[in-house]
Amino acid sequence: MAIVSVLVGFIALLSNMFTNSLIFGNRDRDEKNNLQAIFLIIGIILAILSPIAATLIQLAVSRKREFLADASGALLTKYPDGLAMALEKLAKDNKSLKTATNATAHLFITNPFKGKDLSGLANLFQTHPPIEERIKILRSM
Q1: pLDDT tens digits, 31-53
Q2: What's the CA gap between 30 and 103, in Å, rounded?
Q3: Could you say which of 2, 6, 68, 112 would form a disulfide bridge with 100 (CB–CB 3.0 to 4.6 Å)?
Q4: How distant, in Å, are the alpha carbons of 10, 32, 42, 78 from that of 46?
Q5: What pLDDT, on the 0 to 100 scale, is given for residue 132?
Q6: Contacts of 139 (CB under 8 A, 6+ apart)
């Protein structure tokens, strides 16, 4: 998570640098107007993309941490099949939790928004990897 914070901070810093150079830069009317316009465009693009990139990086790290938690549990219990069976039981329940929100989704063992078919692009914004993939990896241990 520290690496994610540094990456997001770096993108935000670049965005601020480009927009501040426009605001506080030299006001000559010659070539610098073109350069300032380019910096403004780059700053706006970075300001728009940095929160999106931060969210995607954070969610990717969250999904990887789920796999690491499964591997740690299998190492601790020395019984990955038991963990896989527990995940299978959780996967059989297809009810969506009414109390779950996007802000609390990462706190659940499995995806709390079950039953909602998501496209490939929406899968980028999931906090949990597919449970079938987690079960497959546990079975291969």
Answers
A1: 566 776 777 787 778 778 877 87
A2: 49
A3: 112
A4: 11, 21, 6, 46
A5: 86
A6: 80, 81, 84
For residues 47 and 20, give the distance between their C-alpha atoms in angstroms, rounded to a whole number. 12
Q: Span 61-74, mean pLDDT?
A: 87
Residues near 105 by beta carbon (within 8 Å), at least 6 away in sequence:
111, 112, 113, 127, 128
Amino acid of residue 67: F
The structure tokens listed for 1 are: 């998570």
Supply the Cα-derived Rg of the chain in whole angstroms. Answer: 22
Neighbours of 134 (CB within 10 A): 22
Q: Report the C-alpha gap between 30 and 28 in whole angstroms.
A: 6
Angle at 31 between CA 27 and CA 34, to 5 degrees: 85
- Greatest alpha-carbon span in the chain: 71
